[in-house]
Amino acid sequence: MKRAIGFIDSGVGGLTVVKEVLKQLPHEQIYYLGDTARCPYGPRDRDEVNQFTWEMTNFLVERNIKMLVIACNTATAAALADIRATLDIPVIGVIQPGSRAALKATRNNRVGVLGTIGTVQSMAYPKALKGLNRRVEVDSLACPKFVSVVESGEYKSAIAKKIVAESLLPLKSTKIDTIILGCTHYPLLKTLIENFMGSDVAVINSGEETASEVSALLDYHDLLDRDDNGVQHRFFTTGSVSIFQDIAQDWLDIPDMHVEHIKLGNEKGVYQ
Ligand code: I24
Ligand code: DGL
Question: In which pathway does it act (predicted)?
């Protein structure tokens, strides 16, 4: 019996990670759960994010996934250690892969990290980076306006360009030569970020790096699928099925995808 790789995220942003995995591992079956009804997680308390992340995890574990990818930086920061210590399947977050790639890219050991308020406050990136190389110096910056500008669909506009420039100004005066996009939505702003920071600064997409580690981890545990017989991806959302489907079909280029509405925890399952 084929078993799926489970992905959880606060909403649709984790689809940036799924896109990379589908590209690198086309035989794999995907189950994706986005908690769109309670998105965004970025400004919420760590305890609350931990609880929501556990609710999503339990939902997919009940569906017999072979591996769990926490495809949300805020959820990874709040719950990865806890979940990994409890489950008996491999669990991967987006923070470690992004950190590893940044250390590979930096020439001067000065790395910038962009993320939500929750991710930056948790210090999860500086801890992961310093755990891999204690000489690295890290400048973290919360960019709370970035998620809303991407979700407005205006992420290529002059408004987005202005928000990027204003938000990243504090990093211009630092010596960082590498920036980690520590939030699922920021890859959509990658070109604007690169243009503002200039060609001497490498920009790392944590989602892309995570996909490579998913592949390595599945191989290590001998869990890779060799053929795509009977692959039926499933997508679950706590919010509106039609909005989720519009965004996901467009982003993943999957013509007719299965999206199901589900309820988690105490949320009432009200369509948003
Ligand atoms: N992009 C994101 N979230 C949205 C959006 C978007 N609307 C347009 N685009 N909405 O995230 C989130 C709020 N919804 C979610 C569903 O339930 C109700 C509330 C980034 C997505 C990254 C895969 C712009 C847009 C799009 C398609 C692809 C990419 C993209 F419409 F940025
Ligand atoms: N998925 C979240 C992250 O990567 C961004 C959206 C949110 O704040 O929930 O941190």
Answer: Cell wall biogenesis; peptidoglycan biosynthesis
Reported residue count of the chain is 272
Task: Assign residue 68 the CATH number of its domain.
Answer: 3.40.50.1860
Q: Is 39 one of the annotated active-site residues of the chain?
A: no
If pLDDT is split at 50, 70 and 90, which confidence band does 266 have?
Answer: low
For the chain, the C-alpha Rg in angstroms (whole number) is 18
Q: How far is the CA of 9 from the centre of ligand 2 (A)?
A: 7
- Residue 220 shares a structural domain with residue 162: no
Q: Which residues have a Cβ under 8 Å from the Cβ of 49 and sit 6 or more positions away?
A: 41, 74, 75, 77, 78, 79, 118
pTM of the shown model: 0.95
Q: Is the Cβ atom of 6 under 6 angstroms away from ligand 1?
A: no
Q: Is residue 194 part of a domain?
A: yes
Whether 169 and 44 share a structural domain = no
Residue 269's pLDDT is 46
Last-in-domain residue among 184, 206, 228: 206
The residue among 268 and 265 whose pLDDT is bigger is 265
> Quick one: which atom of ligand 2 is closest to the CA of 184?
4
Q: Which two tokens stand for residue 144?
A: 């709370």
Residue 228: predicted pLDDT: 76
